[in-house]
């Protein structure tokens, strides 16, 4: 393979072996396609990884304009990379993955982890379920700052009624890494539970998600 250029070596390795054989930098280089003068696509990919401390999870949530500032990237390559990262995040939301019933906090965690576990700000998500606890719809209800986010319970219930949901699960992330729910988290959970009961919708759980783990209100017998 020594006769191949630095631009083409990752492509050749993928074709002659498997995608799993390639390093993270080589896979990113293939997405970029080309490098710039005096810098191969692989070298540019390595600088992109370095900007995220060589952590794919951290890289996946960086905005596309973060990469534009790096030498050898530019708008087209940055947008291409952002699109690839978004596709990866959507894998758990594919129907073939989510058609199973969400009957445990672990299943909900695995569904939401790619979406919110590594975010630098708080987001509040709602999962709407049918009578068999299968996914009807899920979305981000609100987005806040580093320590809090505002939740409009009326909008939550409106969406639940429109989706004909009979149960819901709510979740939010703690960018601080602190797993213990705040007093406000507990009060909000109780408000959502009581409001949902008025329209015969059951709150099954509230998850607090961090980068490495999660806490389930249901597992703690708090709902």
User: For the record, what CATH class of the largest domain applies?
Assistant: Alpha Beta
Percent range for helical residues? 40-55%
**Beta-strand fraction estimate:** 15-25%
Regions with little confidence, pLDDT below 50 for 5+ residues: none
- The name of the CATH superfamily of the largest domain reads Cytidine Deaminase, domain 2
Question: What do these coordinates show?
Answer:
With 223 residues, this protein is an alpha+beta fold. The chain folds into 2 domains: 82 residues; 122 residues, Cytidine Deaminase, domain 2. 43% of the residues lie in helices and 15% in strands. It is built from 10 helices and 5 strands. It has a 5-stranded mixed β-sheet with strand order 2-1-3-4-5, sandwiched between helices. Strand 1 and strand 2 form a beta hairpin. Helix 2 crosses helix 3. It starts with 8 loop residues before the first helix and ends in a 7-residue tail after the last strand.
Blueprint of the fold:
Blueprint: H1 9-16, H2 24-32, H3 41-51, H4 56-60, H5 64-68, H6 74-90, H7 95-98, H8 105-116, E1 123-129, E2 135-143, H9 153-162, E3 167-173, H10 183-197, E4 202-209, E5 214-216
Parallel strand pairs: 3-4
Antiparallel strand pairs: 1-2, 1-3, 4-5
């Amino acid at each position: 393979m020594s006769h191949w250029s630095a631009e083409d070596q990752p492509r050749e390795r993928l074709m002659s072996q498997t995608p799993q054989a390639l390093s993270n930098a080589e896979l990113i280089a293939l997405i970029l396609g080309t490098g710039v003068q005096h810098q191969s696509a692989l070298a540019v990919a390595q600088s992109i990884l370095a900007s995220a401390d060589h952590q794919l999870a951290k890289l996946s949530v960086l905005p596309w304009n973060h990469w534009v500032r790096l030498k050898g990237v530019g708008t087209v390559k940055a947008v291409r990379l952002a699109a690839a990262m978004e596709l990866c995040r959507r894998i758990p939301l594919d129907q073939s993955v989510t058609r199973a019933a969400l009957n445990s906090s672990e299943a909900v965690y695995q569904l939401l982890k790619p979406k919110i576990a590594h975010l630098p700000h708080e987001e509040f998500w709602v999962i709407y379920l049918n009578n068999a606890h299968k996914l009807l719809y899920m979305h981000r209800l609100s987005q806040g700052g580093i320590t809090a986010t505002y939740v409009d319970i009326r909008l939550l219930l409106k969406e639940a009624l429109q989706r004909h949901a009979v149960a819901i699960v709510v979740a939010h992330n703690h960018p601080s890494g602190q797993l213990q729910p705040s007093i406000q988290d507990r009060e909000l959970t109780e408000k959502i539970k009581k409001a949902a009961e008025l329209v015969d919708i059951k709150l099954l759980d509230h998850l607090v998600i961090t980068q490495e783990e999660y806490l389930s209100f249901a597992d703690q017998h708090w709902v």
